[in-house]
Amino acid sequence: MAEAKSPRKKTSAAKASPKTPARPVAKAAPATKAAPAKAAPAKAAPAKKAAPAKKAAPAKPALSRADIEAKKEKKKNAALRVAKKTSGPRTSPAKAAPAKKAVAPAKAAPAKKKSGPKADAAPRPKPRKRPELSASTPDAAALRRDGARELAKLIAAAGLDKKAERIEILDIGEKVDYADFLVLMSGRSDRQVRAVADGVTEALKEQGHRPTSVEGMQQGQWVLVDYTDVIVHVFVDEARRYYDLEGLWMDATRVPFEAPAADGASPASP
């Protein structure tokens, strides 16, 4: 059997180790929660817009010769229109009321140009009539014709002095009323034509005859000198063949003439 524990030992043991009161444990201060650090939002750099790709130019179709010629003609016509606008008289700045468009008539086919000298080479004498003779002089017409004949011979002689060629005097007094005689002569070039015309006018001025008009001197292709009763035509060879006044006056009488005696020349007309 087990031995019973004595109560003394229990009390003595209790006395020997009296219970000390436990010190209160200081409560630790609750740790403060640290504020979460806010990170600055990183700003992303805006992306650059890509440049739009250039469209490739479409390949131009090859132009035909007819198209090229049409373009050239169009540019030429445009340049002519601009030249006409700039060279014409200036208009007032006031705008005119727009005119109603009229229906354009059908264009006729252009006539073919006749080849020959330039159109502006031909002088255009103004139409005129000689002064009428006085009725008191019955032989006035005959006297005037005699004077015109002598004047035509003087003109022919002056042309010979300037080396004019193919000189002819045509009697047209019975066919027209604006002159009695035509004197035709030629030069080899426009320079010689002007020299012949100048020589004729200067030679006749010395003898008291002055022309009423001189036309075509600037071009030098056909110079017309008007002495009222006698009309002088000085041509270059090409213009004389083209206008063919000899053929136009084929039925006119040819007047013979002689060069001045000092030259010792034979008659110049056929």
Can you give keywords for this protein?
single chain, 270 residues, alpha+beta, 6-stranded mixed sheet, 6 helices, 6 strands, disordered C terminus
SSE diagram, text form:
Blueprint: H1 7-16, H2 65-87, H3 140-161, E1 165-171, E2 181-187, H4 190-206, E3 213-215, E4 222-226, E5 230-236, H5 237-243, H6 245-248, E6 253-254
Parallel strand pairs: 2-5
Antiparallel strand pairs: 1-2, 1-6, 3-4, 4-5
Helix pairs in contact: 3-4
Outline of this structure?
The chain is of the alpha+beta class and 270 residues long. The chain is 31% helix and 11% strand. Strand 3 and strand 4 form a beta hairpin.
Low-confidence stretches: 9-17, 262-270
Q: How many individual helices?
A: 6
Mean pLDDT: 74
What is the rounded distance between the termini? 201 Å
The radius of gyration is 60 Å
Give the ordered list of helices and strands: HHHEEHEEEHHE
Q: Based on DSSP secondary structure assignment, what is the total number of beta strands?
A: 6
What can you tell me about this protein's structure?
With 270 residues, this protein is of the alpha+beta class. It is built from six helices and six strands; from the N terminus they run H-H-H-E-E-H-E-E-E-H-H-E. The chain has helices spanning 7-16, 65-87, 140-161, 190-206, 237-243, 245-248, and strands at 165-171, 181-187, 213-215, 222-226, 230-236, 253-254. The protein has a six-stranded mixed sheet with strand order 3-4-5-2-1-6. A hairpin with a 3-residue loop joins strand 4 (222-226) and strand 5 (230-236).
